[in-house]
Amino acid sequence: MKEVILVNEQDEAVGKMEKLEAHQKGLLHRAFSIFVFNTAGELLLQRRALNKYHSGGLWTNTCCSHPLPNEDTLIAAQNRLQEEMGFQTTLRPLFSFLYKTSFHNGLVEHEFDHVYVGEFSGEIIPNREEVMDYQWIAYQNLEQMIKSSPDAFTFWFLEVYERVFKEYNKKS
Predict the structure, then answer these.
(1) How far apart are CA 119 and CA 43, in angstroms?
(2) So what's the pLDDT on residue 171?
């Protein structure tokens, strides 16, 4: 049973709860989203496995998850990137944001999301239980893909991808 860290709007831990229960109750909890770029400036997208408890089959950022109670968020992000995408790279914090959305199955995603970026151009070895597909994509092509099929993307990705590209290009 995986637990998440419940937080307030300042990202201060206020408790812990089983992950599914936190999503059923829509309680604010800590999460992270990783955006990995290659040397050409393309973003590595993943398409979530169909068996995910929400947003299965949708395109999203390179990797995302939740740190466990008493686990450092950056270390959790680095570990999860290896578990899901089969590689490691140095990650750096870019920004954090709050979001809340409901899904058709009654679950509510309410997260204080830490966004990390990294660079990588090697071999991707995705965990097929987590990832059904992946692709490198340039910003212009991503914009076209989103314009033609916005429902093919996760809610949180659509909320921040423009800001990620802007902030990443400012700092890289």
Answers:
(1) 9
(2) 66
111 is catalytic: yes
- The one catalytic residue in 63, 64, 84, 109 is 64
Domain ranges of the chain: 3-171
DSSP-derived pairing of the beta strands 29-37 and 108-119: parallel
Helix, strand, or coil (residue 114)? strand
Q: Which residues of the chain have a pLDDT value below 50?
A: none
6/128 Cα distance (integer angstroms): 29
Give the DSSP letter of residue 152. Answer: G
Which class is 3-171 in CATH? Answer: alpha beta
Q: pTM here?
A: 0.95
As a whole number of angstroms, the distance between CA 146 and CA 54 comes to 19
Known catalytic residue: 64? yes
